[in-house]
Amino acid sequence: MIRCSLYIIYTLFGSLCLLVGGALVVAAAADDFTINLFVGIDTTSPTTPVLQSVIPVAATQIDILWMASTDDVVLSGYRVYRDGVPIATTTLTSFSDSGLSAATLYSYTVDAFDSFNNISSTSNALSTTTLALPVISPATTTATSTRGADNSTRLPGLQSFLLTPTKTRAAITWQTFGPTKYVFKWGRTTSYDSGTISGNLFLQQHVTFIDSLEPGTKYFFELEAMDPAGKVRVLKTDSFFTLAAVSSALPVNVESFNAVVRGTDVDLSWRTGTLPEGAVIRIVRSHLYFPSSITDGSLVYEGTGERITDTRAVSIRSPQYYTAFVVGGDGLVSSGAIAVAGRLFSPLPPTTEENPVIETGDVLILQAGSVMIIQGRERFTLDASKPLQADGDYLVYIPVSAVKPGLKSIIVSVQNPSNQRLVSRFLLKINQAGDAYEARIPAPLVTGASRLQIEVFDYTAASVRQITTTITFVRTQNPVVLFPDDLARTNVWWMVAGSVFSLFLALFLCWLWLRTSRREDNR
Predict the structure, then answer these.
(1) What local confidence, expressed as pLDDT, does residue 244 receive?
(2) How far apart are CA 90 and CA 94, in angstroms?
(3) CB 182 within 8 A of CB 198
(4) Tell me, what's the pLDDT at 477?
(5) What pLDDT score was predicted for residue 137?
């Protein structure tokens, strides 16, 4: 019996040691933490809040501010009373009471409560009168008006503004010089027909969100504000572009795809750069138009080379249209580089500083602001181009919704920055998601100004829209790390000295060993 009791005691003691040891190990491995354990019932009320101010900011709004309360356990919030009637519950220490009557006296008090529903005593009461109804002047929509000498003549002014778009949403924050209400309108055109959102409180700091936007789409917006005196002003009109839903894994096209007629033969040449593992070049020919897929025409070549002759290609039909596809090892196919034998392409418009963007054709088919260029994290549209890295591939991206239906194809043409007579052309194809036309353009690897043109063709293969702009390719220079010459020379001398010393030491040890061995042999 005694042995059993001792066994139980030892077992319990061992278990306790394991638990304590485990707890100490966890506590030592983790950050400091606090455990609140509620035992019993809390009967202590929070301290009484103190009203600091009640300020009328408009004929229909009063802003209330009070000092925070404290509680021995957890403070849950505050209740706001207007003329003795509860009107709001909040966890903040301020409240904007709106929907009031003009030129009317209102009295306010506040109390606090905790998680056990203990309620503090009522705060001090403060009263104020809402502003009188303003004399409404005609709405001011020009951005040239400035603030006057006093608040009675001051128009709403924008102090700061930030719009942050994502693929389907935009977050807008801004600050005005005084309390204002707002109306925010947006749409794909300046008619702002996509939506309207408004704020009913007079505030200086504003935050709002607009949702259900389409990826890779340009939106126009207008921000209108009204101050407590009823003065209205358009604070900002601008546009933004939602982020493209770019998850393109299409291979990069070949570069400098060219077709040269030699009698009845056609010499085809291109540059592949570095092909992905398992990828091949597939060239397809058609006398009708540029093949849009690897099965849309006659197969001319498949391999990893950079040159082929299509014999007797123009002996029967001319012109002949060629598309060179890069087929990845995973089966994905590039949009296609194109060339034509027997017909000349129209030259690209020359570079002009006065008119960097040239648009011809039907403006309803495609807008320059809907064509996006994407390289890494850099994104811009053709009407606001930025420099591109010369050693990086880039994506031409056009939302399907931005192109008028009824087209045959979209072609992008890019000049070589070092030789403007060399032009590479590529088809844009609908991506796997079906929401955009895409083409991955290979890096030019040279710096300089280039012309990029988007051309849209209808079902009669006639060009109906052209947008041309200037693209500048630059190269980012990596900083050169220079070591002090003295330090480098010192390191070299130390290395040489160390090597020589090690060699002499090894020779000395060998000589000493041989000498010792001979003495032992003589004995």
Answers:
(1) 66
(2) 8
(3) yes
(4) 58
(5) 55
For residue 105, the model assigns a pLDDT of 94
Per-residue confidence (pLDDT) for residue 2, from 0 to 100 = 39
CA distance 388 to 372: 13
For residues 513, 515, 521 and 523, what is the CA-based torsion angle, rounded to 10 degrees?
Answer: -120
The 3-state DSSP class for residue 304 equals: coil
Find the helix or strand (DSSP H, E) in which 15 lies: helix 2-29
List the 378-381 sheet strands across, edge first: 378-381, 372-375, 394-399, 436-441, 429-430
Mean pLDDT by 10 residues, the chain (523 residues): 39 39 40 53 90 91 93 92 93 92 93 92 93 66 41 69 90 93 93 91 92 85 91 91 68 93 95 86 94 92 94 91 93 93 83 74 90 87 88 91 86 91 92 86 91 91 91 72 44 64 78 74 59
Sequence-ordered list of residues with C-beta below 8 angstroms from that of 432, at least 6 positions apart, any chain: none
Global pTM reads 0.51
* Contact predicate 371/365, CB 8 Å: no
Contact between 72 and 101 under an 8 Å Cβ cutoff? The reply is no
DSSP string, 94-151: EEEEESPPTT-EEEEEEEEEETT--BPPP---EEEEPPPPP-PPPPB--TT----SSG
Tokens representing residue 224 in the block:
């209108």
- As a whole number of angstroms, the distance between CA 82 and CA 333 comes to 69
**Encoding tokens for residue 378?**
């850099």
Segment (H or E) for 497 = helix 485-522
Q: Which amino acid is at 238?
A: D
Reported as type and span, the H/E element at residue 164 is strand 158-165
Rounded to an integer, what distance in angstroms lies between the CA atom of residue 257 and that of residue 284? 13
What pLDDT is recorded for position 14?
43
Residue with structure tokens 């200086």? 204
Bridge pairing between strands 85-90 and 75-82:
antiparallel
Say whether 200 sits in a helix, a strand or coil: strand
- The residues with which 457 forms a beta bridge, in sequence order, are 409, 463
Q: Quick count: other Cβ atoms within 10 Å of Cβ 293?
A: 13
- Tell me if 213 sits within 8 A of 168, measured CB to CB: yes
Note if the bond before 319 is cis, omega within 30 degrees. Answer: yes
Taken in order 86, 88, 89, 95, is the CA torsion positive or negative?
negative
- DSSP state at residue 333: B
Tokens for 324?
Answer: 């060179």
Q: How far apart are CA 262 and CA 275, in angstroms?
A: 29
β-partners of residue 473 are 388, 448
In whole angstroms, give the CA distance from residue 465 to residue 454: 8
pLDDT of residue 221: 95
Cα four-point dihedral sign 282, 285, 288, 289:
positive
The reported pLDDT for the residue numbered 405 is: 80
User: Encoding tokens for residue 311?
Assistant: 């014999």
Q: Cα–Cα–Cα angle for 116, 120, 126, nearest 5°?
A: 145
* Type of residue at 449: A
